[in-house]
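Deviations from the work plan: none for this task. Representative record:
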Amino acid sequence: MASVKEIFELHPPMHQFEIKQWIPIEIGGYDVSLTNAGAFMLGTVALIALFLFSATSKRSLVPGRAQSVAELAYGFIANMLRDNVGTAGMPFFPFVFSLFTYILVANFLGMMPYAFTVTSHIIVTGAFALFIFFGVTLLGFIKHGPMFLKLFVPSGVPFALLPIIVPIEIISYLSRPLSLSVRLFANMLAGHTMLKVFAGFVIALGIAGAGPLLVMVALTALEFLVAFLQAYVFAVLTCIYINDAIHMHEH
Amino acid sequence: MTGPSRETYGARGLKQGPFRTLGNKGERWRDLRDGNARGEGKAVAPTDDFDRRLERANAQRGDAPSRGAANPSPLGLAFRIGTELVVAVAVGAVIGWLLDQWLGTHWLIVPFLLLGIGAGFRNVFRHARQMNEAAAQDAKNLPSVPDDDDDD
């Protein structure tokens, strides 16, 4: 029976996050090889496009199974935007819908054995978060001009407190992209590492490994929940940020 | 499950063939409902219930965001509050540290760390207040919602 140490040396828990070159490509001195991360990103987009195109191609009045799922996804995001932003948010529906489906499918793809989890890399989630952050800030300035800066000055605050409150509000605003990206990436990274570690225990403990195996089953279910929940939270927060930029709530 | 074939309900099916009569019938039902009745007796159009529900749904759907509803995902909210509290502290510390590097000072990290902690708590308070407002709104809306239990 292999010891726990041997198992983890043979199968390091962090090994699954390594980026590997699949097809080496070099353009103008830049390394633009197709890596496992890139391949899974393309796969995610292809899966979404393929599913949505095939599900909506029939456009029947009484939807079939696939069309029901597509309509459900549409309704889910449309209601989310309407609840959080109102009808003024509907121009952003394509963006939020793409964002949600991409993260959701990438997370679920990552749950497949031997698959690579795109969203477990902070460079991916960080790019999303920064794009949303700068986009929303730009949107706010386009809609309100310099008045958008009033977002950092909450109404009803005594003048003497402003030197403290304004920096706090600015830091709170600046922490948005970091909290968005860290939450998604950390959840994916921690969850998948945990699964791998418990899987190592199952092998190392032999018959007693039934205990960790049971935990593994429960954790896998939890990971599926987290995969959906993180996509949902990402989309909801995007809606809330868009709402702040459009309506400038006095919250 | 064996239901009617998909084509029966498609736009193509309505345009031609035996479904043409279905389309005409639909128009007659609408006439009956709108008071242009050509026949007598109470006609109940099959689209009536749908129309009513659509009207109700459209009335509920305002232009303004309706954030009053109870949070649909408590676990999602927990994830949000947790990270926002921690991350704001890190952002404050990093800003202070970068300013120290830039200005060649050694103490700016302290006030900015404190501001970051303040921002973290501000984030949590904001959530708490929103939850309070939502709860208050729910309590206000509650009596206007008819209680289904009274019927049976």
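Residues 58 and 64 of chain B are 13 Å apart (CA to CA).
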